[in-house]
Design brief:
Helices cover about 35% and strands about 30% of the residues. It is of the alpha+beta class. It has one domain: Gcn5-related N-acetyltransferase (GNAT) (Aminopeptidase, 3-Layer(aba) Sandwich), CATH 3.40.630. Strand 3 (about 70-85) and strand 4 form a beta hairpin. Helix 4 (about 105-120) runs antiparallel to helix 6 (about 175-190). The longest helix is centred in the middle third of the chain and has 17 residues, at about 105-120. The radius of gyration is 16 Å and the shape is globular.
Amino acid sequence: METQRIKLEPLSKKRIPELFESIGTDPEIYRWLPYATPTSLSEFTTIFESFIEDSAAGIRVAYAVILKSSGVAIGTTSFLDINPTQNSIEIGSTLYARDYWRSFVNTECKILMLTEAFDVRGVERVTIKTDSRNERSRAAILRLGATFEGMLRHHMRRPDGSWRDSAYHSILREEWPAVKENLYNKLAQFD
């Protein structure tokens, strides 16, 4: 999957050191995730190797986000909660180097992921969730055109042991054409 500026390739071990250089140990990047901020390449590798293992087990499809101009991995995103019975999928575990926040990267990644979900996999529903306290991500999800559905209370434990409430959003197949048009319109502002 690729655009003129980025490509998504299956996450591999060879990309982990690059991702560590790009994403690093910035606590703000990991602040809302269900695992602690890694403090070393070793801890970072453990997290991302688990993504690769989950992909091999068929419970995740993890991608490295590659900036085509440099060939460098600047982030990651995944398909999760792959449910063929209910014809649904989740997009999540999305992390980008801070330099690419509020840039073309998330819009292009979501165009690629949503196109794969709706047009290739033929899903009925895509879920996107985040920590209820993560206002930046919640606003970004709404800017995509997703619909806020509600909170799943005490959904998972945070690294500090507190309970995370998860804000759930979705895009349905019938909404995808309008969402796609919205995303392409947003992308035009970065040209």
